[in-house]
Design goal:
alpha/beta
């Protein structure tokens, strides 16, 4: 009997399917993977509704960074459709006023034709300090920015600014959950991953060594191992 489970993968801010490309070969044997398009709407509720309309009836769900914020919204809208949940380098907290002001400025920069400049500003927080001069990773970040585009980036940022506080709903998550992060995430600190793992009953926390905010492209083998264990057990 075929017991495979479809897998819905949600990228982060200004990320595209390229972010999951290094780990897809390890995942596809567990079930057909779908990389969700999250650039067409400008609220978490609308993004989640559209993904749910395009997703299989029941699936494993993995969300990276902004994708985790969307995953929380999917869990609010249709928890019965999610068989497993992976929260990758994300957090349950809402935006701070300072973060929202920074995002608003970045929207203006992107709309003025300086999206790559915004991504260069974000890059040091995206990767482990040892990869600060890794031009290959920087090129991937730029390519994903081109995939998303300035208008898509602006919609994403507006959705992030207005997102809900997901901490009150952590205790309602009942499916097997993986919380995955890097040991040196300078965008979302490890303490916020620990907070999610503590709040979700039975959640497993995995911290990847020598890794920043982009584990799929920084440490693909370790990320794939954590995700395959999540799917297998």
């Amino acid at each position: 009997m075929d017991t495979s489970l479809p897998i819905v993968l949600i990228p982060g801010l200004c990320s595209s399917p390229r972010i999951y490309a290094p780990v897809l070969p390890a995942l596809w044997s567990f079930g057909p993977p779908m990389v969700a398009n999250h650039i067409r709407d400008e609220s978490m509720a609308a993004i989640a509704r559209r993904i749910l309309s395009e997703a299989p009836p029941r699936f494993a769900l993995a969300g990276h960074s902004m994708g985790g914020y969307i995953a929380f919204e999917i869990m609010r809208q249709a928890p019965d459709r999610v068989a497993r949940l992976a929260l990758i380098n994300t957090q349950a907290r809402p935006d701070s006023p300072e973060a929202s002001a920074r995002r608003t400025r970045q929207i203006g920069e992107a709309n003025a034709g300086r999206l790559h400049g915004v991504l260069d500003e974000l890059y040091p927080g995206f990767v482990h300090p040892s990869r600060a001069d890794d031009n290959g990773l920087r090129q991937i970040i730029h390519a994903m920015g081109d995939d998303v585009g300035a208008a898509g980036f602006a919609r994403q940022q507006r959705a992030i600014i207005a997102r809900a506080d997901s901490r009150p709903t952590l205790a309602t998550i009942a499916c097997p959950t993986l919380v995955l992060t890097g040991d040196t995430d300078n965008t979302i600190p490890n303490s916020l991953s620990q907070e999610m793992a503590d709040g979700i009953n039975g959640a497993k926390l995995v911290i990847i060594p020598d890794c920043g905010h982009m584990p799929q492209i920084e440490q693909p083998a370790a990320t794939a191992a954590a995700l395959t264990e999540w799917l297998r057990n």
